[in-house]
Protein backbone atom coordinates (compact mmCIF):
# COMPACT_ATOMS: atom_id res chain seq x y z
CA UNK A 1 0.00 0.00 0.00
CA UNK A 2 1.21 3.53 -0.81
CA UNK A 3 1.97 5.40 2.40
CA UNK A 4 1.76 8.98 1.21
CA UNK A 5 0.48 10.97 -1.74
CA UNK A 6 -0.12 14.56 -2.66
CA UNK A 7 -1.30 16.55 -5.61
CA UNK A 8 -3.40 19.37 -6.95
CA UNK A 9 -6.53 19.84 -9.07
CA UNK A 10 -7.35 23.13 -10.78
CA UNK A 11 -10.88 24.49 -10.65
CA UNK A 12 -12.60 26.95 -12.95
CA UNK A 13 -15.46 29.08 -11.69
CA UNK A 14 -18.89 28.21 -13.20
CA UNK A 15 -17.43 25.18 -14.98
CA UNK A 16 -20.40 22.93 -14.17
CA UNK A 17 -19.37 20.37 -16.79
CA UNK A 18 -16.36 19.30 -14.72
CA UNK A 19 -17.83 20.16 -11.33
CA UNK A 20 -17.21 17.37 -8.86
CA UNK A 21 -14.37 15.74 -10.75
CA UNK A 22 -11.62 16.89 -8.37
CA UNK A 23 -13.37 15.43 -5.31
CA UNK A 24 -14.27 12.31 -7.25
CA UNK A 25 -10.63 11.85 -8.32
CA UNK A 26 -9.51 12.37 -4.74
CA UNK A 27 -11.97 9.70 -3.59
CA UNK A 28 -10.47 7.27 -6.12
CA UNK A 29 -6.95 7.99 -4.87
CA UNK A 30 -7.99 7.42 -1.24
CA UNK A 31 -9.74 4.16 -2.18
CA UNK A 32 -6.69 2.95 -4.12
CA UNK A 33 -4.46 3.66 -1.12
CA UNK A 34 -6.59 1.43 1.05
CA UNK A 35 -7.80 4.25 3.30
CA UNK A 36 -10.70 3.02 5.50
CA UNK A 37 -14.10 3.46 3.85
CA UNK A 38 -15.53 5.75 6.51
CA UNK A 39 -12.59 8.15 6.17
CA UNK A 40 -12.93 8.09 2.38
CA UNK A 41 -16.64 8.83 2.66
CA UNK A 42 -16.09 11.80 4.99
CA UNK A 43 -13.23 13.19 2.88
CA UNK A 44 -15.25 12.82 -0.33
CA UNK A 45 -18.26 14.66 1.13
CA UNK A 46 -16.13 17.51 2.52
CA UNK A 47 -14.04 17.80 -0.65
CA UNK A 48 -17.15 17.84 -2.86
CA UNK A 49 -18.81 20.62 -0.85
CA UNK A 50 -15.62 22.71 -0.86
CA UNK A 51 -15.07 22.08 -4.58
CA UNK A 52 -18.64 23.11 -5.42
CA UNK A 53 -18.31 26.30 -3.37
CA UNK A 54 -15.15 27.25 -5.26
CA UNK A 55 -16.84 26.55 -8.60
CA UNK A 56 -20.12 28.28 -7.72
CA UNK A 57 -18.79 31.36 -5.94
CA UNK A 58 -15.21 31.89 -7.09
CA UNK A 59 -13.55 32.86 -10.34
CA UNK A 60 -10.97 30.09 -10.15
CA UNK A 61 -9.22 27.98 -7.57
CA UNK A 62 -7.34 24.85 -6.76
CA UNK A 63 -7.69 21.84 -4.53
CA UNK A 64 -4.51 20.48 -2.98
CA UNK A 65 -4.43 17.24 -1.08
CA UNK A 66 -1.87 15.59 1.12
CA UNK A 67 -2.35 12.05 2.34
CA UNK A 68 0.03 10.68 4.99
CA UNK A 69 -0.23 7.79 7.44
CA UNK A 70 -1.45 10.38 9.96
CA UNK A 71 -4.07 12.38 8.08
CA UNK A 72 -5.84 13.45 4.94
CA UNK A 73 -5.45 17.21 4.49
CA UNK A 74 -7.32 19.05 1.74
CA UNK A 75 -6.84 22.75 0.96
CA UNK A 76 -9.13 24.72 -1.32
CA UNK A 77 -7.72 28.05 -2.37
CA UNK A 78 -9.72 30.36 -4.60
CA UNK A 79 -9.31 33.76 -6.22
CA UNK A 80 -12.32 35.55 -4.87
CA UNK A 81 -14.68 37.20 -4.20
CA UNK A 82 -14.03 36.16 -0.59
CA UNK A 83 -16.46 35.63 2.31
CA UNK A 84 -17.38 38.84 4.21
CA UNK A 85 -18.65 37.07 7.37
CA UNK A 86 -17.36 33.54 7.93
CA UNK A 87 -19.43 32.91 11.10
CA UNK A 88 -22.59 33.77 9.16
CA UNK A 89 -21.51 31.63 6.19
CA UNK A 90 -21.02 28.67 8.57
CA UNK A 91 -24.66 28.82 9.76
CA UNK A 92 -26.95 26.02 8.55
CA UNK A 93 -29.33 27.37 5.94
CA UNK A 94 -27.38 30.54 5.17
CA UNK A 95 -26.83 30.91 1.43
CA UNK A 96 -26.25 33.68 -1.07
CA UNK A 97 -26.70 31.31 -4.03
CA UNK A 98 -28.60 32.96 -6.89
CA UNK A 99 -31.74 31.38 -8.36
CA UNK A 100 -30.03 29.60 -11.26
CA UNK A 101 -27.71 27.85 -8.79
CA UNK A 102 -30.69 26.84 -6.62
CA UNK A 103 -32.36 25.41 -9.71
CA UNK A 104 -29.33 23.13 -10.10
CA UNK A 105 -30.00 21.79 -6.61
CA UNK A 106 -27.43 23.80 -4.67
CA UNK A 107 -27.90 26.68 -2.25
CA UNK A 108 -29.33 24.97 0.84
CA UNK A 109 -26.67 26.60 2.96
CA UNK A 110 -25.53 23.16 4.15
CA UNK A 111 -22.13 22.84 2.46
CA UNK A 112 -19.88 24.47 5.06
CA UNK A 113 -21.78 22.90 8.02
CA UNK A 114 -21.39 19.54 6.27
CA UNK A 115 -17.64 20.05 5.89
CA UNK A 116 -17.43 20.90 9.60
CA UNK A 117 -19.43 17.79 10.54
CA UNK A 118 -17.33 15.40 8.45
CA UNK A 119 -13.84 16.61 9.36
CA UNK A 120 -11.65 16.75 12.47
CA UNK A 121 -10.27 20.22 11.84
CA UNK A 122 -11.55 23.05 9.63
CA UNK A 123 -9.84 26.39 9.01
CA UNK A 124 -11.25 29.12 6.78
CA UNK A 125 -9.40 32.31 5.95
CA UNK A 126 -10.92 34.82 3.60
CA UNK A 127 -10.20 38.31 2.35
CA UNK A 128 -12.94 40.09 0.43
CA UNK A 129 -11.69 40.98 -3.03
CA UNK A 130 -8.82 38.47 -2.79
CA UNK A 131 -10.14 35.03 -2.05
CA UNK A 132 -10.78 32.22 0.36
CA UNK A 133 -8.62 29.42 1.69
CA UNK A 134 -10.41 26.51 3.31
CA UNK A 135 -8.45 23.66 4.82
CA UNK A 136 -9.73 20.52 6.45
CA UNK A 137 -8.00 17.61 8.12
CA UNK A 138 -9.28 14.11 8.77
CA UNK A 139 -7.04 12.07 11.06
CA UNK A 140 -6.20 8.47 10.25
CA UNK A 141 -4.03 7.47 13.14
CA UNK A 142 -5.58 5.16 15.67
CA UNK A 143 -8.38 4.27 13.30
CA UNK A 144 -6.54 1.83 11.11
CA UNK A 145 -3.57 -0.26 12.35
CA UNK A 146 -2.14 -0.60 8.83
CA UNK A 147 -1.97 3.17 8.29
CA UNK A 148 -0.64 4.22 11.69
CA UNK A 149 2.95 3.66 10.64
N1 LIG B 1 -15.35 29.81 -1.69
C1 LIG B 1 -16.29 30.72 -1.42
N2 LIG B 1 -16.18 31.99 -1.89
C2 LIG B 1 -17.11 32.93 -1.61
N3 LIG B 1 -18.21 32.70 -0.86
C3 LIG B 1 -18.38 31.45 -0.37
C4 LIG B 1 -17.45 30.41 -0.62
N4 LIG B 1 -17.87 29.29 0.02
C5 LIG B 1 -19.01 29.63 0.64
N5 LIG B 1 -19.34 30.94 0.41
C6 LIG B 1 -20.47 31.69 0.98
O1 LIG B 1 -20.97 30.98 2.11
C7 LIG B 1 -22.34 30.64 1.92
C8 LIG B 1 -22.63 29.33 2.59
O2 LIG B 1 -21.92 28.27 1.93
P1 LIG B 1 -22.48 26.76 2.04
O3 LIG B 1 -21.60 25.90 1.23
O4 LIG B 1 -22.67 26.42 3.47
O5 LIG B 1 -23.94 26.86 1.41
P2 LIG B 1 -24.37 27.06 -0.13
O6 LIG B 1 -23.19 26.84 -1.02
O7 LIG B 1 -25.03 28.37 -0.24
O8 LIG B 1 -25.43 25.90 -0.33
P3 LIG B 1 -25.13 24.32 -0.43
O9 LIG B 1 -23.68 24.12 -0.10
O10 LIG B 1 -26.02 23.66 0.57
O11 LIG B 1 -25.44 23.96 -1.85
C9 LIG B 1 -22.54 30.66 0.41
O12 LIG B 1 -23.88 30.86 0.04
C10 LIG B 1 -21.64 31.83 0.00
O13 LIG B 1 -22.28 33.06 0.29
MG1 LIG C 1 -21.98 25.12 -0.78
UniProtKB/TrEMBL annotation:
Residues 49-138 form the Histidine kinase/HSP90-like ATPase domain. SUPFAM superfamilies: ATPase domain of HSP90 chaperone/DNA topoisomerase II/histidine kinase. This is Anti-sigma regulatory factor. The lineage of its organism: Bacteria, Pseudomonadati, Nitrospirota, Nitrospiria, Nitrospirales. It comes from the Bacteria. It comes from Candidatus Sulfobium mesophilum.
Amino acid sequence: MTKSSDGVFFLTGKDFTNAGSASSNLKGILDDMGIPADIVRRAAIAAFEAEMNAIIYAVAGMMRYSITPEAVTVTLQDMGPGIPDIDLAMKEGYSTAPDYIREMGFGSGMGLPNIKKNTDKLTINSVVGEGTTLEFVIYLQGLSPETSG
